[in-house]
Design goal:
With 274 residues, the chain is an alpha/beta fold. The protein contains ten helices and twelve strands.
Length: 274
């Protein structure tokens, strides 16, 4: 009988830019896991069909990126606690006839900020831009770091208000507004909108940033995003989403394979890949 490696992929639209295959190949080599991992472009209106086709082909799991994280949560037959809190899924595990939905985005982002960037989140003022699937995955892990406050700003204020209402009662002051309602300055500003995919800048005031504060765009690319360039002009330290990508991938890999890879060194290697 012909041997086949366990198969995994990342599902998104667009997806050609994804570095996830390189990351998981490095993790597999490091830990001696027999697996393959590739990109999967799903039609915007064909996510569920794509997932069912992957399961039929024997895939063991998949990562999920823009714009399918909310759909992935709806499709899962079971959600982990953190995925349920987020209402969004970025990791699917196909096991025992189930589609288990998890969310490793928030833990990945926190690990990158606290461990890799060396920025403590306790007692900080955080501004979170966006209220979609990515922002939902970030909220609970951020709250668990006990910041002084979190303001969620979104193009549609009502969406930000619904997001904040879903996380009330955790002992951290939360507020919501439209982009035009952003007031004051923040220690940490996270762009969780998809604006950088279109090379656009969210309409935020320069006064939101503080000199020496952290501005992180969850998207990543070979060049700084408009958000990162704007934040740097205000004196903030900038960071893209590559570290978050590596850390959330390590969490997903652990879920699938039962072994945790070492992320040290991989971030530098990826930054040098053009």
């Amino acid at each position: 009988m012909e041997h086949t490696s366990d198969r995994y992929c990342v599902i998104g639209n667009p997806i050609a830019h994804s570095k996830s295959p390189q990351i998981h190949a490095a993790f597999a080599a490091q830990t001696g896991q027999d697996m393959t991992y590739e990109r999967c472009l799903a039609p915007v209106d064909g996510f569920a069909t794509t997932v069912r086709a992957l399961i039929a082909q024997g895939y063991k799991g998949a990562n999920v990126t823009v714009p399918f994280k909310l759909e992935a949560a709806a499709l899962a037959t079971r959600l982990t606690e953190r995925a349920r809190a987020a209402g969004a899924v970025n990791t699917l595990h196909f096991t025992h006839g189930e589609i288990v939905g998890d969310n490793t985005d928030g833990p990945g982002l926190v690990a990158d900020i606290v461990r890799n960037a060396g920025v403590a989140l306790a007692n900080t003022r955080i501004l979170l831009l966006g209220a979609g699937g990515a922002a939902r995955g970030i909220m609970l892990p951020f709250i668990e770091q006990r910041p002084a406050s979190i303001l969620v700003a979104n193009r549609t204020p009502a969406t930000a208000e619904r997001l904040v209402a879903g996380f009330a009662g955790h002992g951290v002051p939360l507020a919501a507004c439209g982009f035009e309602g952003i007031d004051g300055s923040f220690d940490v500003v996270v762009n969780a909108t998809s604006s950088s995919l279109a090379a656009e800048l969210p309409p935020i005031p320069g006064s939101a940033f503080i000199r020496g504060g952290l501005a992180l765009d969850i998207m990543y690319g070979n060049e700084p995003s408009p958000f990162m360039r704007f934040a740097a002009e205000q004196g903030a330290a900038t960071r893209d989403g590559l570290g978050m990508l590596v850390e959330q991938a390590a969490e997903a890999f652990t879920i699938w394979r039962g072994v945790r890879p070492d992320t040290g060194g991989l971030l530098d290697t990826l930054r040098n890949l053009k």
